[in-house]
Predict the structure.
Amino acid sequence: MDQKQIRKVLRASSVVQAYAHQIGLVPTRTVPALIVMFDTLVTESLLNKTTRQLFLDGHYALAVEEAYKCLNNVVKSRSKLTADGADLMRTAFSPKNPILKLNPLKTESQKNHQQGYMDIFAGCMTGIRNPRAHEHRYLDEPDVALEMLSLANHLLRLVQNAKLTRSQSGRRFKP
């Protein structure tokens, strides 16, 4: 079964489970089901290693925080920037002068893609990572954590596939 088919089955089963739970036929998701969902959605090796045990131990908010700290550190490492969080993302993915290019940036759609993802990366640092890093007793439900971990997985894959456009000294590489 490929990833697309797995996601389709998971969506369908999620709808059935939600309805069954709503009418009182089943308890909330079991740990084995959460493990299967985690392993299906968090496929990037580094992210999986960083967050799996935390998630399995029920530390959902901490797993999410660690995922976005991991994402931040990978962007920092690839871009060789010293900034952090939203500022790092805005500099690394800037559509006008990117260090990490998600596409060739030739068409308006490609420029919009770069701009949109820059905003998503920056927003994740501000809206997902920071509240968990700065608030004590921050709790996430397992389903919500899986959604955020899945997004981190997607973003990490984009970072790993992005084209580096500058050297550490700031000079452009020749294409």
In short: Residues 1-30 form one domain. Residues 171-175 have pLDDT under 50 and may be disordered. Strands lie at 100-101, 163-164. DSSP finds seven helices and two strands in the chain.
